[in-house]
Design goal:
alpha+beta; 5-stranded mixed beta sheet; 5 strands
Length: about 150
């Protein structure tokens, strides 16, 4: 008895698009037509400016969207998913309607803090010397507190 299983593979294409707004009548279908023309399986659309969150199921695609509950005209993200991969998505969860503010620590601040922990000061001068900077980076990778 042959117990080999046949494996199916498929290529998926992903995209992102800042649409500025989706509040005009017919705008959703225009964008979906473009997505279907391109053959993109999953597209993340930013700045749709829709209020609330939900799911819209159509014949050839599904739209999952999320925006602020009480402010229209701001933010919003939407995913347009073609029908062929919709069944692969078991569930989705809204995590945050928008991440706000700058990061608590910039990359440069983080580098300065880590180098101070290693006892390295005036690191900007050392960074100009490629070999010295490579040694510092190697030390940082091995440093237990970083």
């Amino acid at each position: 008895m042959n117990t080999r299983r046949r494996q199916w593979t498929t290529d998926l294409t992903f995209g992102t698009w800042n649409v500025q707004t989706m509040l005009q009548p017919g705008k959703m279908m225009k964008i979906v037509d473009e997505v279907l023309k391109l053959g993109t399986d999953l597209v993340a659309l930013q700045a749709i400016r829709w209020q609330g969150h939900g799911e819209i199921n159509k014949k050839n695609f599904t739209v999952i969207y999320s925006g602020p509950e009480n402010r229209i005209w701001q933010y919003g993200t939407r995913f347009t998913i073609l029908r062929k991969i919709k069944e692969s998505i078991l569930e989705w969860e809204l995590v945050n309607d928008r991440l706000r503010g700058r990061p608590k620590m910039r990359w440069l601040d983080d580098v300065s803090t880590d180098l101070r922990k290693m006892g390295i000061y005036e690191w900007r001068d050392r960074a100009r010397d490629r070999e010295a900077w490579r040694r510092i980076a190697k030390e940082a990778k091995a440093h237990p507190g970083l």
